[in-house]
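$ run holo --ligand "S-adenosyl-L-homocysteine" --emit tokens
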Amino acid sequence: MTAQTMSSNWSATVLTLFPEMFPGPLGISLLGKALEKNLWSLDVHDVRDHGLGKHRTVDDTPAGGGPGMVMRADVAAAAIDAVDRKNRPLIYLSPRGVPLTQSRVRALAAGPGAVLLCGRFEGIDQRVIEARQIEEVSLGDFVLAGGEIAAMALIEASVRLIPGVLGDHASTAEESFATGLLEYPHYTRPQMFEDRPIPDVLTGGNHSEISRFRQQQAQALTKERRPDLWTLYEKNKR
Ligand code: SAH
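-- output --
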């Protein structure tokens, strides 16, 4: 089997209280076209289908007191157990999770897909996280109102790496993080913008000079903006 046919089975299952948010931005542009072409698939399940009683209750007040509501462990477990995992990682989008990185995204894109649980309110009961051995992944050190946008970000970042999804597949090889550096800056017409010309080297046609220039720019940007990445890059070079 080729990589292409393998990854065309990539599938995301999302468990959410707001299924109407999907596909949303994932149905637009190149990802949306790839969805239509079955290069990847998305199914979205309403956690409320597993809610309790006449009102399909999914949450309750936090044990020990405090503000807000917590998603019940039994309801979340029922929603999870109703999904055919098909060897896919089970991920709860959570600000307490391991921050998502491009290398994790690459690993996810190379795998069969992901099952993504989106929290709301104060989050979900800790016991279901432990009982179902759910991995927690964060979008970054800030707090969203729900896991849906984080799930979309994870899906979008993964799906764009599936062969055939982006028009020019080569464009993911040199982009930010792929090389351990931030990407070099881009320029296009016009040649002069408000007294700022395109750097001469880029219009000179000398390809080795161009790649040297871009490499210098990428290094300078990374050093200045992301000393954490720069340190790693220098270490890995040795
Ligand atoms: N009380 C929680 C925040 C709950 S926010 C805390 O302080 O840790 C509600 C939901 O939004 C969470 O259950 C989670 O699914 C989602 N969420 C919020 N911030 C997120 C982030 N940085 N990354 C991923 N998901 C996030």
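-- notes --
Residues 1-7 have pLDDT under 50 and may be disordered.
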